[in-house]
Amino acid sequence: MQWKTDWGLRGRMVFTMFLLFALYIVFVGVLSQFTNLIGIVLVMGLFSLGQFFFSDKMALYSMGANVVDENEAPELHRTVERLSQQADLPKPQIAIADSQVPNAFATGRNQSNATVAVTSGLLRTLDQEELEGVLAHELAHIKNRDVMVMTIASFLSTLAFIVVRWGWLFSGDGENQAPIYVAILVSLVVWVLSFLLIRALSRYREYAADRGGASITGNPSALASALMSIDGGMDNVPDDDLREQAEMNAFFIIPIRSGFIGKIASSHPSTEKRIEKLRELEQQQETA
User: Fold this and answer.
1) pTM of this prediction?
2) CA–CA separation, 164 vs 31, rounded Å?
3) Is residue 107 part of a domain?
C-alpha cells in the first residue's frame, strides 16, 4: 500500500487545531491583563521545553522499560529495522518493559531521536504478523511527529490547569481580588475545552497512525487482529497492573479505560471503530 493522505481525517485534525489556536488566543489575551501571572508562563515554558527534549526518557522510566540491543532481542531488532526501511525512517531505539499489560508505545522528540517500546505481555500475546502491525503503527506515530504535535497542542492547556490550581497564590494582598478570580474562571473554561479538543485530536491521530501502519506493512488485517488480541488480553491482566500503568494511556496503542468518564475522555477511538476503518482499508486494497 502507498502512504496516502486521508484528506477527511487531515481536515478534522486541522479544524481541531484551529479551534485550539483560537481558544488559546482568547486565553492569552485574558491572561495578559494580569502581569503577576507572567511568571507562570515562563516556568511552564521551561517545563514544556524540558518535557519535549526528555519525553522519551520520562516515558521509559514511567513504564520501567529498558533499551535493549540486538544481542538481547535479535528478532525484534530485525523486525523493527525492516519496517523502518519500509517506512523510510531511521531505525529507532527499542525498549522492553517487563509488564503483563499487552501494549506498545512510541516516544521521542523527532524521527532521529525516537524509541519504540513494547511490553513482555505484548510479545507473549501476539504472533509475528500482529506484532509487525503494532510496530508499524508506532513507527507511523514517529513518521507523523505525533509526540511533537501533542506536546505543542497541550502546552497552554497545561498552563490553564496550573492557573486554575495555583492562581490564587499570585493574587497579592490587595483588596480587589476580582481580577484574579476572573482569570482563574477563564482558565478553568479554557482547560476543560482544550482537554476535550486535545483528546479529539489524539483520537484522529490514532486513526492516522493505524492507516500509516497498514501502509507500511501492506496488511491492515494484521493490525486489526492485533487490536482484537490486545483488547481481549486486557481482561487477563490483574487490576493492580492496570492501575499502575493507566497514566501512560495517551502513549499506548490501546488505552486502559475505566468507567464512563474514562471512555468519553479517551485519547483513543474505540477498538471497534479502528477495526472497522482497517477493514475498509483492506477492502480498498483488494479492489485497487
Assistant:
1) 0.81
2) 12
3) yes
